[in-house]
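Wed. Picked up where I left off yesterday with UDP-glucuronate decarboxylase. The coffee machine is broken again, so keeping this brief.
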Amino acid sequence: MRKIVVTGAAGFLGSHLVRDLLGKGYQVIGIDNLSTGRLENFNGVKNHPEFTFYKFDVSDPNVLKLPELANVDEVYHLASPASPKFYQASPFETIAVNTTGTQYMLELAKNYQSKIVYASTSEAYGDPEVHPQPEGYRGNVNTWGPRACYDEAKRLGEVICYEYFHRFNVEVKVVRIFNTYSAGLRNDDGRVISNFVTQALTGQDLTVYGDGKQTRSFCYVDDNIRALQLAMEKDEANGEIINIGNPKEYTVLEVAEMVKRLTGSNSRITFHPLPPDDPKVRRPVIDKAKKLLGWEPVIDLEEGLKRTIEAYRAQMVAQ
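Structure written out below (tokens, as returned):
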């Protein structure tokens, strides 16, 4: 049986991945310090016979001493706050998990000749001057600002991956993840879709930052999880950086209006100052994912929003 480690297992992406891997019959070891992850994300699988969870920080060197990690086959390193609300509140922890924590997970992979997927981010492109963004674009990132703790830590994590690939032949694959969403996204994490859906369903104003003309590309979580597993599986992805996201681009205002329509909400749309270094455009070039992974997203934004709204609504009724 394949033995798989997922860091950040109690987070949004991690918990979806854990469920999917267990459903495929694998042994899964989840690691999370629960700084932003939640144990309730494991509801339905926490007592699964092939699932083991450790409340542990992967930036702690003792993580390599956990006996259950011996002879691991695959490592998905997803651990990190991903919302500006959370990483700006914990900048040093965010830097540590994406640098020191990344090195420990690469060391684990080296020790057991394991494959590893490192979850980087579209934030590696910063506020891009090239649009849409191919993997070869080196980005426009501000090292002296409130987002740098995340953006630059992820970029340095990629450098560490490069060194382990070239020096130690570790089978590492780097995926730059663009905006991902679904009902599993915390409704208090401050990201655009979780904000809009929660606000619309509770009759609050929908808060748009700036003039709403800035663009984003939104990938439904099921498509993302499929891409992560393809990256792990494909030898062609070794030593590569691959964009994972939906190339269909929307303005933030278009998303707000779509959420209002799909929820039937009477909420107003209000405008607020744009946060520092907030990127004005964001859209991936996914030619590499298509070629190396045979992957492209299949769930469009309207369908994904319908699923998300239905689940958020059910959660609110249950509460």
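Quick read: The chain has nine helices and 13 strands.
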